[in-house]
Amino acid sequence: MSNIVYIATSLDGYIADKNEGLDWLHSVPNPDGSDFGFAEFMDRIDALVMGRNTFDMVRSFDCDWPYPKPVFVMSNSMTSVPVGFEDKITLVNGPLQDIVADLNSKGFNNLYIDGGITVQNFLKEDLIDEMIITTIPVLLGGGLPLFGDLVSPLNFKLKKSEVLIGAIVKSHYVRVK
User: How far apart are CA 134 and CA 147, in angstroms?
Assistant: First the structure.
């Protein structure tokens, strides 16, 4: 069982710019339209756990729902699934340990953890087993940070790092306990 972060950051560690925008993700030309291993990653996971802000961002994109796996949206304020997403998401709330245990008991063992606050909260409770971080060579100078305060340091070991399209670096870390 693994809780895995798969996310892109700027060189200065932001996952969205000062206006919560994501246009900077496309600052490096990708003429072949590579997904940089995202489809392979999705084959490995059983479900996604994302925060409400991330869900709202994804549903604002002008595209079909991008996730072929069950998506669990964490929210303390959303009381019902928005119209049109009834077959796409399930709302969850409560202590993270309980959410993970419940999903694991239902056979969702490899979870993709997505969203800045959600990732930070999982890290605060030492619930992240792996992080796959793709670094885009741009300095945003502010925005939404990937990492936040921790109670104590968490050690990770670099499993693999690769340069993609000669410009971005994808690094895979595994939690050392």
Answer: 14
